[in-house]
Amino acid sequence: LLAGLYGTEDGTVTVDGETAPGKIIGKISMVMQEPMLLPLSIRENITLGHEVTESRMAEILEATRLSSWIETLEKGIDTYLGDKANELSGGQAQRIAIARAMAKETDIILLDEPTSALDRSTGEEVMKALDKLTEGKTVIHVTHQTDFLKGYDRIIRMENGELKEK
């Protein structure tokens, strides 16, 4: 509902007093399980037109563990993905999506299995960095990997079709 992927049958979704889905989505960053990359450069896929300083970009790339891979590319972060976006590993695509969410600088972040395509070790590193970079923000994290939820203020799980607070 927050992402605008579904409409309400009853009631209203309100974020910071805003009820229009087009306005709400501007206040939210999302990392979906299967990220969509565009035929643009890596930088453009991360920024999507948002202003990001070089120092902030370096911090984001380091946090998402993209730095070392990008350094191997001839044009670095300005490498054009084009049709090659389909040739990236699931982990690379997912880390670009996480970097995109960080670059958008919103107060609400939706995570839908953000580390599903990463190996365990990389997933843990990315989650630690993501936790640090999302401090003070509202994070809604949907996952089967409940050990990644340590440190969250509230954990709500689906049990037999009902929401239960843990």
Any overview of this molecule?
The chain is α/β, with parallel strands linked by helices. The chain has helices at 21-24, 42-47, 54-63, 67-71, 90-104, 120-133, and strands at residues 28-31, 108-112, 138-142, 156-159, 162-165. The strands form two sheets. A three-stranded parallel beta sheet has the order 1-2-3, covered by helices on one side. Strand 4 and strand 5 form a beta hairpin. It is globular, with a radius of gyration of 17 Å.
Topology of helices and strands:
Layout: H1 21-24, E1 28-31, H2 42-47, H3 54-63, H4 67-71, H5 90-104, E2 108-112, H6 120-133, E3 138-142, E4 156-159, E5 162-165
Parallel strand pairs: 1-2, 2-3
Antiparallel strand pairs: 4-5
Structural features:
single chain, 166 residues, three-stranded parallel sheet, two-stranded antiparallel ribbon, 33% helix, 13% strand, globular
Structural class: alpha/beta
How are the strands of the largest sheet arranged? 1-2-3
Tally of individual helices: 6
Distance between the termini: 22 Å
Topology as a string of helices (H) and strands (E) = HEHHHHEHEEE
Number of strands: 5
Estimate the mean pLDDT confidence. 87
> What spatial form do the alpha-carbon principal axes imply?
globular
Cα-atom Rg, whole angstroms? 17 Å
State the share of residues found in helices, binned by percent.
Answer: 25-40%
Largest sheet: number of strands, sense, barrel closure: 3 strands, parallel
In what range is the share of β-strand residues? 5-15%
Enumerate the spans where pLDDT stays under 50 for 5 or more consecutive residues. none
